[in-house]
């Protein structure tokens, strides 16, 4: 399927967004990320979204490795090929092994997760399925994470669910690797 809104040119997104996307592509070893050049067509909204998203990834309270586990699980649950493709590479850079990245699709009960990883994945699944957490899961999260980090986890899952919906409806294609 072709994109419903194609990634913008420098004129469409503005010099700052265009330069940012090209730098991000160089850093990740891909073409300039289509997510930036597509969403960047709405310049004002893009800047606010980028600031918000950056507070969770890469600037969040959760360790990057755990953030990537959660995002990869959301990508799997939502069927977001764009998110999955982007975050496999980012997950590797955050310290996830290929076996762990592959195991994300097996879910929280797959052997090999630490108790904390299993809890984060289970919370992600519950939020995806019910848009809520059981009292038992909440109690476990609060024993493991402080209040701000719990809030961040909830918003991280919700954000990537929203982004998967947007990217899917716009039919944004995964970025090609360079070289």
Automatic annotation (TrEMBL):
InterPro entries associated with the record: AhpD-like, CMD-like
Residue ranges occupied by any Carboxymuconolactone decarboxylase-like domain in the UniProt entry: 45-126
PANTHER family registered for this protein in UniProt: 4-CARBOXYMUCONOLACTONE DECARBOXYLASE FAMILY PROTEIN (AFU_ORTHOLOGUE AFUA_6G11590), CARBOXYMUCONOLACTONE DECARBOXYLASE-LIKE DOMAIN-CONTAINING PROTEIN
Protein name, as recorded: Carboxymuconolactone decarboxylase family protein
Source organism (scientific name): Nocardioides oceani
